[in-house]
Write the structure tokens for this entry.
Amino acid sequence: TAHTVLLNTGALMPLLGLGTDKLRPPDMHQAVDAALAAGYRAFDSAAVYRNESDLGQALKELLPKYGLTREDVFITSKLGPKHQGEGAKEAALRSLAQLGVDYLDLYLIHWPGTQNRPVSDQRNPGNRARSWAALEELHAQGKLRAIGVSNYTPAHMRELMQNCKVPPALLQVEFHPQLCQTELRRVCQEYGVCFQAYSSLGRGDLLNDPVVLEVARNCERPPAQVLLRWAVQQGVPVLPKSSNPDRIRGNMEIFDFDISVPDMEKLSALDCNHRYCWDPSEVA
Ligand code: A2P
């Protein structure tokens, strides 16, 4: 579709993808079916979601129904924290096998730490470097067409930029009007890294925010579409997760309206450094 962003690898990535955390069969199959029907061409997975094989299976069964092939969809997965370092290469290859594909469009280091918690650990810097080297190797082999990171802070990004041979294509972090990530966006822009949002709906909590509801009335759109539109109108790709076919369809309808400049500013003024997910800034 036309709604894509250009990565620094030269590849195009859809501005909207389906988040798949917590999706299990038979919901996974139903969600992927609704998403493909609605025009989704990107799917965001991760080893820690423990459902890569379910997503791979659903795509294998459903792509032919829509006259599509593997090449028509953009598949992302991520390296789990406990496989950072020595285990990174094997873990990435396991993700490929679980998804049943011979390449991934994008593969991310899921979290800057070696433990899946916001804690410091002396192994972290060495493991991040070893993980990145493994990703670079698989990128050179064509198995990971683009490589990037998730939940990195500005300090983690600078460390990576100073040590990499292949620069990251993308950073995926929590992003919504209460967490505008001004510094991280500036760092990404400086380094030519695509900035991608997760939890655009604040895990659902932002759907009841009075300002979001006011803008929704002005746009005559549901609050979820307003929150997603707020991001893509700034060029930021989004990954709404839903298991409900109606909401999956609705979350795609964000390319046929604009939020006015004053309403964009009203939403951005909600910025208060509020997180619905873990804060990675303690992860040294
Ligand atoms: P559900 O799967 O029942 O649709 P986030 O992406 O910020 O983490 O938010 C995801 C949560 O928001 C999920 O619990 C999902 O629940 C819910 N959700 C996704 N899309 C919508 C929507 N259009 N309206 C209301 N809730 C939504």
User: Anything to note?
Assistant: The chain has a mean pLDDT of 97.
